[in-house]
Amino acid sequence: MAILSKCQTVPVSCKDYVHPWSESCVWASSTLLLPCLKESFRIYVTAYSVAMLLRGKVPNGKELAYTFLGIVRSCIFLTSHGVGYSGMACFLRRVLGRYNFYTASFLPSFLSSILSILIERPSRRVLLSLYVTNVASETLFRMAVSRKLIKPVQYGEVFVFSASSAFLLYIYRNHGLPKDPVYSLLKFLVGPYEEFGYTPSESLAEPPNHLRPETKKKIGTAQLKWIQFLNWFQTQVYLVKCGISHPSCPHPYSCSYYVLEGACRKFFYGYLTQLCIKLLMNSTKIVKSPSLALRIPFWPETFRLAAMFSAFCGIFRYISCWGRETCDKDLTTTAIPAGFVAGLSFCLYRDNSIALYFMWKLLQITYGLGVEKGYCIELPYAPVFFHAFSTAILFHTAIMEPKNLRLSYWNFLQAMSGGKIGEMSRDAFDAYGLESSKQLSDLLARVKAKK
Fold it and tell me: pTM for the full model?
């Protein structure tokens, strides 16, 4: 029979619940140090290295030293998270005497998260807070669905992405966006011409030159045909560039070229990105079966991101140009319907994490604009609170109802703890009616089956 009050305590010691593999609380926490350091080092070396590569320049000694110190600081932050959670769970047990539904995982995670996030650089706290809030919001949704409080809406993530994209692109056109990942992604998808404050600077290039008679005699027939084809193709592109565009359009060349060039270019980049990801994710299989590398480029899944990028860019640009021609002027509000319809292309590459990221990013940017204009009160420690609160939800879910946790996040917790979070006993908490121990067994079996 389930305990009705979540505040009612259960008779379980920290040794039986938190660290059944060790008698000592201190030793149990110290055993988490090595796996936490190992996983955090792997994560942050990769993250900081990718960030350096995206800058497109060779770092100097000062930048390398700054990056190294950033990696060390971030590793300490993440390691203190894992070790601190275990230590705080034992500490609260000694102070309060027993565990209840909230003090078993939520409260120790909340307290350790606050202490840990203060170690990280202030400039990274917003990004970390946004990430865990993203995962926590999805987790809360799954918890509500499992309790039958709400019913999932088919293609709901597409609507969330479309609505978020619409208003983010409106802000992009009307105010500009802060220099962060979502700004870079939107600029990549729709181009710099739609950005707030853009000034045209490009001019139409000259048409391609044709081969002279004496040049034709010096090259072979196959090479001549290829050069003639390239000249013909460049001529057709030039003719498309010379087409019609509305005077209020910010882009160079014609509207037809603007739409077609964007759609084709984004398809190429999307396909190349997805292909690299697929090859990297299947690298171990490719080593065993090299012929797989020849099949991956033709998988339907390899084209999904390319199709989404291409459709998003083409639709947004087409509706934006159509709106300028229809209204006979450039209205920033056109970005809302253009962004929403373009966002429907997300059905080609559906992902809950991306949709929620755009939603939370919209809320963050809107709040920032509200503070800037004096409509909202600035909360300086809001990222710290949201990070701690969201992390507490995730750790609480990992203990009480792990089936509702995103599988990738569960694997992350397992890697950070060296598999110890899967060894923590949930038997005493079955009294709350969530079948926590059974959920853990089912989750571990599911993870094992996927390997």
Answer: 0.82
